[in-house]
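Hi R.,

As promised, here are both runs. First protein below:
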Amino acid sequence: MLVHRNGHPLILISRAIGQRFLAVAISMVFIWSGYASAEEPEAKRVLAIGGAVTEIVYALGEDDRLIGRDSTSTFPPEATNLPDVGYIRALSPEGVLSVNPDLILARENNGPPEAVDVLKSTGVTWVDVPDDFSVEGVDENIRIVAEALGVPQKGDELRRRVASEIAAVQQRLDGVRTQKTVMFVLSMRDNRIMAAGFNTAADGIIRLSGARNVIDVFEGYKPLSDEAILKAAPDVIVTMAGRGDHGADDEQVKSHPALGRTPAALNNEIIQVDGLLMLGFGPRTGLAAQQLASAIYGFES
């Protein structure tokens, strides 16, 4: 729509049209810069979005091609030396494109959708790495990343190693006679408990560790009432270690009016875990399952 202000014409562009215009403009810049071509050369400037994706690239030995990462990619420690393009769910086209990637490997829980749509329209190769909190999901993610990097044989080797590590944990769990129940507390800010239901990374790692997620009535991460906590009566409580509002130590759990009265708290069965390790579902999944199973059932690590 064309309007005038102070005698000068102004073009007003709707938000949707503006986003499409931005996408076209960015695409043209990349075409002129030589990023868009009929052929697909080997990616030399790789951006990893998602902690597990970054870990896979490092585990494949292809980290020399990484030129950036998102803020959730903090392992291995050297990854933090890479430019940070922002939080996985709050990406901006400008921030992502500032590192000039020729390949973007992104965990699918990225966003916002408008920014991702713009980025996918630029001509830069974008590869989605699914969220799948299972053994099969880890295997498939390694395959996807390895093929995108053009190193399928390295991917096969890593897949075999990870599968072997997970199988070793499952073999050890064969001797467990009584399965324990676990409540995974994602956060307890202001004493309000946010717990993990089914179809979550927490639920997946609990299963791989030979235990049962005591919260099986909802999907995702949701708040729990004191009554629901007492009714669940978990044998074990798992909390996040050292992550600001997400963290909770033994004393915080025991002093909570409901958590403190559960069998887990009364029996000192409170486990603090590294969130990225336990919830990442990347190449360290076998290690995560082994550590959690050892803590729950008293195995030697």
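And here is the second one, sequence first, then its structure tokens:
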Amino acid sequence: MSLADFWFFLIAVLWIGYLVLEGFDFGVGMLLPVLGRDEPDRDTMLGAIGPVWDGNEVWLLVAGGATFAAFPVWYATLFSGAFLWLVLALLALIVRVVSFEWGGKSENPRWRSLWQWANTGGSLVAPLLWGITLSSLLNGVPINGKQDFSGDPLDFLSGYTVLGGVTLVALCVLHGTVFLTLKTSGDLHTRACRLAPRVAPAAALLAVAFVAWTAAKSVDVNGRDLLPSIVPAALAALAALAAALLVRTDREGPAFGATAATIGLFVLTIFVALFPRVMVSSTDFANSLTVANASSADYTLTVMTVVAGVLTPVVIAYQAWSYWVFRARLTREEPAADGG
């Protein structure tokens, strides 16, 4: 395996880490108007992700930085073509961040409701656009002989890519629901346990449909044999079905593991089906960007590998420690009585 191949799959791992960890954050945000019946409920839900959401977003920053440094041609072509969708995704993330910071600045119910809905909207839009963007890498977009994007933003939208976005949204909702069964107690915990079996069948069905279509795309669009991509696709389908079954048995830990595995394998299936290309050209397959023709020089990749080898264990250890510190379940805090 070359260094360019190594960095391609390391970027896949970074996306997996981001969407698995930020996925339950997105899910909790989307569930605020569903499970949060009043302010104490919604405060408890936000408190469940409050200590970790910003750390989870580090994975996205590293994935973007690694793509820029390891595959500058890929980065330039993707960002020039998907500029509209990526800006909208970043705006959704910014709105989410502002909602965390500003939502508690006033006790006015309208003010708090505004920022809670902003959190929900940002939590919905971001995974939808990430799913569409990642799916478009395999689906194909117009790329000319100079390796430049030659279409318009609507070229990123198709039945396959929209299914990818919708599937990721559904998986995040399920992931967030199961996360709340682990992190809450009382009536909120009970409602999350009741909701999970209702969400799971739709999320599992979408996941199975998407990974099957992805495996087929690897043959039809990318000229690959079916074998490499069918393995993660089959594992993703099994994980989705396992999650749907586990949420009915109140096995919260294994259910969360299954939803995390489904999201991770969702991303891995796309990258395995895409390899050895990084972006497929829909105008002329010969214009597709590959791991080889889009990567940096070996010296750059070698330096990056040394730095990643030193810093990555530190980042993982710190994040694991933060999750351990904030592992306890949260209990709903009742508002203080008047005059009390």
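A quick note on the second one: DSSP finds twelve helices and two strands in the chain. Let me know what you think.

Best,
J.
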